[in-house]
C-alpha cells in the first residue's frame, strides 16, 4: 500500500496560502476525502509524486494529454519556441498555422478565435450567439459544465418557474433569469423551454458526450432532435467540445456522431497541455466578432506563441498518428470489460458508461442517462473505490462525477495492473 506522507505535508503548507490548498476545487479531493497527491513530474502514462510513488494516470490533466505526459514533439516545440521569446502582444505566424490546421480537421467551421481557457471559450461563444441572434436567453443542461462564468453556474429553479437560479453565491438573479435549464436526454424538457420562450433563445449549449456528471452518452436521436429544434427556432446550437474536441476523433463529436454545430468550443487537447482554448463557427457568425464586428472579445495572452506551438505540435501529431483514436477506443473498451468483469464477479451493482477514450464507473443498478441518475449512484462506495485504487498506485478522477481520460501511452500491461488492483481491493472487501 503506497504512502502519501510528503503530499500531505505539502497540502498542509498549500492550505495556508491557497484557498483550500488548490487553484481548482476538484484537486482538493473534497468529493473523496483525504489529501491530494502532489506531482513531481510525469512521463508517458505515469505520474511520479512527492513521496516517490509511481502512479498510473487516468486523468491526463483532465483530458489534454492524448499521447501521455511530456510527449516529445510537444516538449520540443515549446522549448524551441521559448528561446525566441514567450509573448509579444503582437501577431505571430504560428497563430495562423494552428488556425489553418484546426479548421482543416474540424467540420462546419471557417474561422476560429483562440483564448486561454474553456471557460473563456464558452463565455465568449454565448456572447457571440447573443450578439448574432439579438436574443438574450440560453438553454443549458443540468449536469453539463461549461466553465465557471456566471451564466453557466445555474441550478434548476422551482417547479413553478422555468428560470434557473444561481447555484453559487455571487451569481446574480439578473444573470440567472437568462439561463434556462433542461434535462439531458429528455427532448420534451427542451421543447417545453422553447414553447415557453418562443424566438427568445439565442443558443442551446451542450456537451455532445457529457463528461462532467461522469461520462453520460446522448441517447440515439437526441442530438439530432436538438439540431432540428434549433433550426426551427433560429437558435444557435453550441457544441461544447472542450472535452471531446480532438479526443473522440480529429473532428471531435461533430465527426464521431455526425452532428453539425453552429458554434464549437475547444480546450484541453487543443493546447497539448498548455492553457489554450478556442471557439469556432462559420464566417457569417464569426465575422460578428471584434475587430470585424461589434461583439467584443479580447485577451492579452490569447494566441500566446508558446501555447500555440504546443497546440500546433499536438494537432500535427494527431494528424500523423490518426490511428490514435482507434487505439484509444480499444484500450478503453479493454479497461471497461476488465472492470466490468471483476465488479460483476464480486456482485457489486455498477454501470460503466464509455465512448471513445472517455469512461466512468457508477455504482448503481440503474442506467445513468442524466444528472439525476448520476446523483442516485452510490458515491460513498465511489470514495472507497477511489482510495482502494489510489493506495495501489492507480490515479482515477477524484469524484464520481468525472470521466476517465485515457492516454495512448497506457499499455495493456498498465490496464491489466489496473483491473488486477480492483480485483485485489474487492477480494479484501475494501469496496
Ligand atoms: C473543462 C471544461 C470546460 C472548462 O474549461 P477550463 O479550461 O477549465 O475553463 C468547459 N466545458 C467542458 C465540457 C469542459 O470539460
UniProtKB/TrEMBL annotation:
Its cofactor is pyridoxal 5'-phosphate. The modification N6-(pyridoxal phosphate)lysine is found at residue 268. GO terms for molecular function: glutamate-1-semialdehyde 2,1-aminomutase activity. InterPro entries: 4pyrrol_synth_GluAld_NH2Trfase, Aminotrans_3, Aminotrans_3_PPA_site, PyrdxlP-dep_Trfase, PyrdxlP-dep_Trfase_major, PyrdxlP-dep_Trfase_small. Pathway: Porphyrin-containing compound metabolism; protoporphyrin-IX biosynthesis; 5-aminolevulinate from L-glutamyl-tRNA(Glu): step 2/2. It is found in: Cytoplasm. It comes from the Bacteria. It is an enzyme of class 5 (isomerase). Transmembrane segments: none annotated. Keywords: Cytoplasm, Isomerase, Porphyrin biosynthesis, Pyridoxal phosphate. It catalyses: (S)-4-amino-5-oxopentanoate = 5-aminolevulinate. Its EC number is 5.4.3.8. Its main location: cytoplasm. Belongs to the class-III pyridoxal-phosphate-dependent aminotransferase family. HemL subfamily. Homodimer. This is Glutamate-1-semialdehyde 2,1-aminomutase. The lineage of its organism: Bacteria, Pseudomonadati, Bacteroidota, Flavobacteriia, Flavobacteriales.
Amino acid at each position: 500500500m503506497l504512502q502519501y506522507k510528503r503530499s500531505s505535508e505539502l497540502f498542509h503548507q498549500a492550505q495556508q496560502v491557497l484557498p483550500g490548498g488548490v487553484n481548482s476545487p476538484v484537486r482538493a479531493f473534497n468529493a473523496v476525502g483525504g489529501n491530494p497527491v502532489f506531482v513531481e513530474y510525469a512521463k508517458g502514462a505515469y505520474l511520479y509524486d512527492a513521496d516517490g510513488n509511481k502512479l498510473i494516470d487516468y486523468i491526463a490533466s483532465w483530458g489534454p494529454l492524448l499521447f501521455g505526459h511530456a510527449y516529445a514533439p510537444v516538449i520540443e516545440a515549446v522549448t524551441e519556441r521559448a528561446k525566441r521569446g514567450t509573448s509579444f502582444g503582437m501577431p505571430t505566424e504560428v497563430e495562423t498555422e494552428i488556425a489553418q490546421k484546426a479548421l482543416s480537421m474540424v467540420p462546419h467551421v471557417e474561422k476560429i478565435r483562440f483564448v486561454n481557457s474553456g471557460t473563456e471559450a464558452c463565455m465568449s461563444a454565448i456572447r457571440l450567439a447573443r450578439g448574432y441572434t439579438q436574443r438574450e436567453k440560453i438553454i443549458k443542461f443540468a449536469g453539463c459544465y461549461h466553465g465557471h462564468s456566471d451564466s453557466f453556474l445555474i441550478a434548476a429553479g422551482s417547479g413553478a418557474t422555468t428560470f434557473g437560479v444561481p447555484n453559487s453565491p455571487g451569481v446574480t438573479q439578473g444573470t440567472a433569469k437568462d439561463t434556462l435549464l433542461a434535462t439531458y436526454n429528455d427532448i420534451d424538457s427542451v421543447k417545453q423551454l422553447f414553447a415557453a420562450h418562443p424566438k427568445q433563445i439565442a443558443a442551446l449549449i451542450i456537451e455532445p458526450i457529457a463528461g462532467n456528471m461522469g461520462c453520460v452518452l446522448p441517447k440515439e436521436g437526441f442530438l439530432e432532435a436538438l439540431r432540428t429544434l434549433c433550426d426551427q427556432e433560429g437558435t444557435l446550437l453550441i457544441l461544447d467540445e472542450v472535452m471531446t474536441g480532438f479526443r473522440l476523433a480529429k473532428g471531435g463529436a461533430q465527426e464521431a456522431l455526425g452532428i453539425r454545430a453552429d458554434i464549437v468550443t475547444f480546450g484541453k487537447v487543443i493546447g497539448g497541455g498548455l492553457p489554450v482554448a478556442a471557439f469556432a463557427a462559420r464566417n457569417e457568425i464569426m465575422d460578428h466578432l471584434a475587430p470585424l464586428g461589434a461583439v467584443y472579445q479580447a485577451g492579452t495572452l490569447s494566441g500566446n506563441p508558446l501555447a500555440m506551438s504546443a497546440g500546433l505540435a499536438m494537432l500535427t501529431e494527431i494528424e500523423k498518428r490518426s490511428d490514435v483514436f482507434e487505439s484509444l477506443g480499444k484500450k478503453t473498451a479493454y479497461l471497461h470489460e476488465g472492470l466490468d468483469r471483476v465488479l460483476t464477479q464480486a456482485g457489486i451493482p455498477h454501470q460503466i458508461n464509455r465512448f471513445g477514450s472517455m469512461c466512468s464507473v457508477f455504482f448503481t443498478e440503474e442506467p445513468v442517462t442524466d444528472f439525476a441518475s448520476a446523483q442516485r449512484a452510490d458515491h460513498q462506495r465511489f470514495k472507497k473505490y477511489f482510495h482502494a485504487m489510489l493506495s495501489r498506485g492507480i490515479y482515477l478522477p477524484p469524484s464520481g462525477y468525472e470521466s476517465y481520460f485515457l492516454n495512448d501511452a497506457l499499455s495493456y500491461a498498465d490496464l491489466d495492473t489496473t483491473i488486477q488492483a480492483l480485483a485485489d481491493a474487492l477480494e479484501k472487501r475494501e469496496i
